[in-house]
Amino acid sequence: MTKMSTLCYIRRGGDVLMLHRIVKKNDINHDKWIGVGGHFEHAESPEDCVLREVREETGYTLTSFRFRGIVTFVYGEDTVEYMHLFTADGFTGDPVDCDEGVLEWIPRDRILDLELWEGDRIFLKLLEKDMDFFSLKLVYNTDDELEKAVLNGRELDA
Known about the structure:
15% of the residues lie in helices and 46% in strands. The chain is an alpha+beta fold and 158 residues long. The chain has one domain: Nucleoside Triphosphate Pyrophosphohydrolase, CATH 3.90.79.10. A hairpin with a 2-residue loop joins β1 and β2 (15-20).
């Protein structure tokens, strides 16, 4: 199964808005902390999708955002998801409750202390370095273990 999605990390001063996925049952992200985003709808561009998903999940309308990279997420033998990765530093609106989990502003220097996918730690560090647009392939087994990470066509050391 191949999917396309967006993932956005919204920054406010020294904090990042994170979503703790604790609501949905049978959620591949259950108990993990991730950015805000979701799957493309018919005929959406990555920008259309991230704007809609952020508005639906947070109540915020992004006013300043940047397309940062593509993450190819491979899980087992049958799941491939192309995640279009964004950061944002401007928004308007009032927060709403998210039906996928709990939204919380986390200090940027504490993000890596959260329960994250191992591969998320890689791209979150790239985002902090303000690396130019990148392509990151993350290959997981069905025990949620990262087996391989490839950045811009070059395999990273384990």
